[in-house]
Amino acid sequence: MKRWRSTLLAVGAVVVLGGIGAVAWRQLSEHAGNALTAIGGPFSLTDGQGHTVTDRDLRGRYMLVYFGYTFCPDVCPTTLAAMAGALEKLGKTADRIAPVFITVDPSRDTPKVMHDYVAAFSPRIIGLTGTPEQITQVTREYRVYVASHRSREGGNYTVDHSSILYLMGPDGRFIAPLRTDTTADQMAGELVKLVSGASS
Fold it and tell me: What distance in Å separates the CA atoms of residue 47 and residue 109, rounded to the nearest whole number?
């Protein structure tokens, strides 16, 4: 497990620095069926209406999970836009998927901020936040790389984070990672294959 945690952190670092390398991504995908099935776990977070949402509340549907934050300047809005577009293209199949956006910046991303942010992309996307302790727990469970960088002047800061979409099965188990540097059409096509394959 330590070896695969290191692999995911390395992949996360590559994402932050400018895109997933083909070799690193291939290694991650090839091992999705064994060691990496340990990805994921129970969580209890808060949605945009202030209601508690747990992983069990979403059982029975596939979860498409993405970690980011609302102040993210580029990869987060791009990924959420592609996710929203993919869900539209999936038609009725999208009803079987719960798209989830979990913040890695709980200090600024309050329930209202998360609600307004995800609503700008799609009413389907569930924005979740929580206490710093809750967010630390869920990022550890999903092996998410997170590192805050504060500016020398003022209190502004950015958050480096790995950029990977996690597809979880109706039973809560990890199925596969999805690339975030894809179009809505490509993401929809990948989801159809994974959801259909997992169902057969």
Answer: 11
CATH of residue 64's domain is 3.40.30.10
89: CB partners within 8 A, 6+ apart: 184, 185, 188
When divided into structural domains, the chain yields a total of 1
φ, ψ for residue 126, nearest 5 deg: -95, 115
Question: At residue 158, does pLDDT exceed 70?
Answer: yes
157: tokens are 């800061």
The string of pLDDT tens digits covering residues 82-139 is 999 999 999 999 999 999 999 999 999 999 999 999 999 999 999 999 999 999 999 9
Residue ranges making up the domain that contains 140? 2-199
129-148 pLDDT, tens per residue? 999 999 999 999 999 999 98
Q: What is the pLDDT of residue 95?
A: 95
C-alpha span between 140 and 35 (Å, rounded): 15
